[in-house]
Sequence to fold (692 residues):
Amino acid sequence: MPVGTKGTVKGLTPGDLREVGAGIILGNTYHLYLRPGSDLIREAGGLHDFMGWNGPILTDSGGYQVFSLSETRRISEEGVEFTSVYDGSSHVFTPELTTRVQEELGSDIAMVLDECPPANASRAYHEESLRRTARWSRRSKEAHEKRDQALFGIVQGGLYPNLREESLGRTVEIGFDGYAVGGLSVGESREEMLETLALTAPRLPSERPRYFMGIGDPVGILQVIALGVDMFDCVLPTRLARHGAALTPEGRLNLKNAKYRRDFGPLDPECSCEACAGYSRAYLAHLVRENELLGHRLVTLHNVRFTVDLCLKARREIKAGRFEEWSRSWISRYRGSDHPRTDELE
Amino acid sequence: MPVGTKGTVKGLTPGDLREVGAGIILGNTYHLYLRPGSDLIREAGGLHDFMGWNGPILTDSGGYQVFSLSETRRISEEGVEFTSVYDGSSHVFTPELTTRVQEELGSDIAMVLDECPPANASRAYHEESLRRTARWSRRSKEAHEKRDQALFGIVQGGLYPNLREESLGRTVEIGFDGYAVGGLSVGESREEMLETLALTAPRLPSERPRYFMGIGDPVGILQVIALGVDMFDCVLPTRLARHGAALTPEGRLNLKNAKYRRDFGPLDPECSCEACAGYSRAYLAHLVRENELLGHRLVTLHNVRFTVDLCLKARREIKAGRFEEWSRSWISRYRGSDHPRTDELE
Fold:
């Protein structure tokens, strides 16, 4: 899912998104609630009409942003009080409110309100937190009235296998249309992430979609797919693009590197997106160096296309029963694991 | 001519430009010479290939930018030495060099090197300057070798009728494929500009295109067309867009104004561009407030379409012999003269 934080996947129109094959996008409740306001978006006919995208949309509950963006927050049984990253104003998210807000946004998939503690929080804290998240999840479900909107639960529990198991049991017991694995890709190592996911994913109901929150680098996508994950999101492909980094089958290509100044070949010879079909690396490198809007736009278009294509290929290989072999070969060609550094996600 | 300063009309692809009906665009020799370098663009096959635009391109000679952007400059008979706005490095533009650079860029129309003194320079200075520009113009023409590239001369002379007449005579005597009126729209009042143009334009050879350098506001365009001008360029429509101001038949619409937050109608109901057909004022206002790339892109698309449409309508009305009446009615509907403030052009 390309991320459309504020009601736009940065630089792209809905037409561009359709052209690169995006089947679903993500919107951020935290941002849209604060700017322009979910009441305004409801008046516009919902997020689909507001932004002109008629494909599926998943909205998160805002829980992650409250914990990652807001300078101060105070958690209680009722919900979480936080200060807006925009203007410092004070707000309270409760499970009931974030459910109503997502109903106003009119997304196709809504998420329960969860707490996302840092990976290095104590075991005791993670235990207390996952139980509160389970109670919030039940309240989200009870508040949820929109019949044509799916509601997903979120499994927390940090890196503790027993806590993940407990959280999973409590979440599945409540019963949701799909299940997300949250609280990973938040600063722990890639190995810790995969180990924890490997214990969690197989126990999720197999007839429901499994959503891994916050992964978007090519190798990571293949790694979580191998563990049974169906859906994921990350700002990485679009954010990298705005920093001049393009995704290619050989790894990240930093267009600011001097060697691309006179490289008149296409960005990715295997790609047929508008950026690769119509322009040279030299031209894109020039745009990126000059911080031109068109550079952000074209590299974003390519990175989203590249990531969507990778998922479509993975699906095809799964159906053909060749996923493991294909994935191993794909990863060995890609330089480095490309695990995003924390500062790239902030 | 929409302005593609650095080899891109900011935010738009060549496909967008074709879609909004742009028949010719402008490239800036000063910028392209410094970044990425005209030698690199020549290696790429010229500016058309480099940026993927197969329509006509006019390049200026860089003279205006040397005088408006560079912090220091030293004029001699040979040419002008100046410091780069990018890194302070020292460069020299001579008529021979800017002609060769434009040949490397491969534009369809090249301009002679001219000096563009401030409107408030003394009469004596303007006189000295226009004579040097005439000598530079002759050297530009003598250096010009590219047979499939037109070369235009530039009339200077400030606001002094006699000096304009002298400059025009000297320029026409040398003989060019087209003639520009330069040194206006540089800080003088709109009235002074039109008075001076009214004395100059009718004396230009009627069988050659007449190019007014640096006008792009809707009313100004109609005013110079009325005086017989065929071509013009200005960053105004694209720059206004990036500041959230849209052009409409009723005047400038500032999308940051609170009243558009909940305005779910189209930006300009009379326009069929992608921005007007697919989005509401409320959505565009949200994008502009959040400084989203897509906001810059969509409003730019509209402003270029609006300006191109205005010119196409003017052409139609001229052919039908109704220009004056139509233009008067159009201007009376448009709020204010919309003469750009100097700070909007810097």
Summary: The longest strand of chain A covers residues 150-155.
